[in-house]
Known about the structure:
By secondary structure, this protein is an alpha+beta fold.
Amino acid sequence: MPIGILTLTFSLPGCRSLKEKRMRMGGLHERFGRSPAVAVCESGERNRHDASEWTFVVVGLKRQEIESEISQIEDKIQQVVEARIVDVRRESI
Length: 93
């Protein structure tokens, strides 16, 4: 079974507290973790208020399906998250 991993690093300019960071990044887990094929977690920069890193693990039967899901996740995040994406890493296992 193929696995795709998408890791996004965000910059949160003007963010002054961890509470504000949670509000700006809030909902990522709920929004994307509903799918049984996607696991989501804040994987880095947890204690910084001006940065965040999130990892999405996608499983499926075909690599093409996984790549499509990862592209949809990335597109949706760019529309709904109040942060700037500074790094995108994709891996396939």
